[in-house]
Amino acid sequence: MHLSVVQKVLGLLLMLFSITMLPPVGVAWWYGDGTDQAFLAAAAILLLLGFAVWLPACRSRQGLRLREGFLVVALFWSVLGLAGGLPLYLAEHPDISVTDAAFESVSGLTTTGSTVLVGIGDLPESIRFYRQQLQWMGGMGIIVLAVAILPMLGIGGMQLYRAEFPGPVKDSKLTPRIAETAKALWNIYLGLTVLCAVAYWSAGMTPFDAIGHSFSTVAIGGYSTYDASIGHFDSAAIELIAIVFMVLGGANFALHFAALRRRSLYPYAIDAEFRTFVGFLGGIAAITVGYLLLQGTYGSDWWRAVHEGLFQAVSIATTTGYATANFHLWPAFLPVLLIFASFVGGCAGSTGGGLKVIRVLLLAKQGARELVRLVHPNARVAVKIGGKALDDRIIQGVWGFFAAYVLCFALGMLVVMATGLDQVTAFSAMAATINNLGPGLGDVAPHFRDIPDTAKWVLAFAMVLGRLEIFTVLVLLTPAFWRR
Q1: Cβ count near 48 (within 10 Å)
Q2: Distance between CA 257 and CA 169 in Å, rounded?
Q3: pLDDT tens digits, 116-169
Q4: 384 strand-pairing partners
Q5: Local structure of residue 389 (DSSP, 8 states)
Q6: How many Cα atoms within 13 Å fall on the side-chain side of residue 32?
Q7: Which residues, at least 6 apart from 65, have a Cβ–Cβ distance to it below 8 Å?
Q8: Which of the 8 DSSP states describes residue 225?
Q9: Which of 359, 355, 463, 376 has the alpha carbon at shortest distance from 416?
Q10: How far apart, in whole angstroms, are the C-alpha atoms of residue 2 and residue 482?
């Protein structure tokens, strides 16, 4: 293990991260909200800290190997997530503890969207902007991680798209070099963000709100500049725009790349994962809207039942977490159905959380194969995607990931319950964080402010665990990883 190269990279990351404090400083100066000193102080602290970490290892010429790569990826979200809470703690408003500042920052950078803040609309504009910016930066980091970095480490959902697979992605990298891949992804991500901001602005948002919500929409984050989230605007046009960009953000960004390169929608049409993703969203939305109408939740106002049911279904199923209604108060099974839908999440190579659609699709196909084998024990039945048979090692890897995911969820839920939370609250809080969803049920339906600090740290760890697709973190806990 070459720790010097890890130290060098971490120091550089902290110094680069200090620069991200400057846009909120500009916002603070523009609005005169008085928080510029907190961001400048945070920038100076992170710059000096990063330099102190980097300097002893600056002469290291060793390259990143597999094990160092795992450590750097894990440190990226954990260390920068904690560092991002510094300006929130230093600012006079909000007046929050170290734990709450760290929780809010990790939630933002992992694009989870769970919050400990109330009265968001009354906070300084620079703080409101900074929360949105955290999610946007995290979303871009997730895309580069999923499409360019994790395949190099041999893990992640994009590993399922190997050269022998059909569809638009013929290799784990979109372009021959990782720098070119990152640039291509950046251009797509930035383009979607600009389009989303313009659309929101044209639908009636102020430029401040349009930019802020475009950051969290494309990142599938869910943070808003108001407590009432998207519901604050009470606009069907804004909700429709949000739905479109939530679906785009939840799709594989490699598909966007392929579609732009071909100037055709054909890559979406032939991709099995994207078709399953759209079909799943449609099914959840149909059940939600149908049951709201059947129960007369909104009385004779059928249009409200339709658009609120559709919006909540897409928002929760894509793990965005925006809200236009208190879905936790909806009748019967609907709240739990939506929480379960978040376990599926977005596509591989997207900003969405959850298990990822491709894994769930392969689990379903493997389950169907086992049923056939029960009837025909000697039959050779292959699991296929797009007409091509998959190697059984891929199926085994998916089952291993699923087992680890369920085990981490169960253990996390038990630990959170041990801090004093009831079963519904603990279940939904763990689901909301490990799936990078945001809102929960029970005591965490409105916010996470009032739960114990111990539970907040456990849930913050769950956010990182879910964001890094479990194995990236768990491998660091094995003795074999640290053995020479």
Answers
A1: 13
A2: 9
A3: 999 999 999 999 999 999 999 998 776 665 555 545 444 444 433 332 222 333
A4: 389
A5: E
A6: 0
A7: 2
A8: S
A9: 463
A10: 11
| 366's tokens | 């493997």
Tokens of residue 39, six digits: 């961001």
CA pair distance 390, 163, nearest whole angstrom = 12
pLDDT at 63: 67
Q: CA dihedral in degrees (101, 417, 471, 460; nearest 10)?
A: 0
CA angle 301, 303, 307 (to 5 degrees): 130
Q: What does the block give as tokens for 360?
A: 């769930």
Question: Is residue 214 within 8 Å of residue 238, measured between CB atoms?
Answer: no
Side-chain-side CA neighbours of 109 within 13 Å: the count stands at 26
Structure tokens at 409: 């969820």
Report the alpha-carbon distance of residue 274 to residue 255 in Å, rounded: 9
Q: Which residue has the tokens 């739990």?
A: 336
Nearest to 366 by CA among 404, 400, 337, 408: 400
Which pair of structure tokens corresponds to residue 296? 């007369």
The DSSP secondary-structure symbol of 62 reads P
CA dihedral 147, 253, 464, 154 (to 10 degrees): -20
Phi then psi for residue 384, to 5 deg, are: -120, 145
Query: Among candidates 130, 54, 55, which has minimal Cα distance to 91?
Result: 130
Q: Which residues make Cβ contacts (< 8 Å) with residue 430, sequence separation at least 6?
A: 409, 412, 413, 416, 459, 462
DSSP string, 347-388: -TTSS--SS-HHHHHHHHHHHHHHHHHHH-TT-----EETTE
In 3D space, the residue among 430, 441, 423, 426 whose CA is nearest the CA of residue 408 turns out to be 430
Q: At what angle do helices 453-467 and 392-418 cross, to 10 degrees?
A: 170
Neighbours of 267 (CB within 10 A): 21
CA contacts within 13 A on the Cβ side of 60: 20
Lowest pLDDT segment from 55-59, 234-238, 383-387, 420-424? 383-387
The Cα–Cα gap between 412 and 64 comes to 32
Q: Provide Rg for the chain, Cα atoms.
A: 22
322: pLDDT strictly greater than 70? yes
Q: What angle do CA 278, 158, 438 make, to 5 degrees?
A: 60
Cα–Cα distance for residue pair 280/270, rounded to 1 Å: 16
Spatial separation of the C-alpha atoms in residues 246 and 320, rounded to whole Å: 7
- Taking the C-alpha atoms of residue 405 and residue 156, their distance in angstroms, rounded to an integer, is 13
For residues 313 and 346, the answer to whether their CB atoms sit within 8 Å is no
Distances (CA, A) of 150 to 72, 183, 339, 369: 11, 17, 27, 29
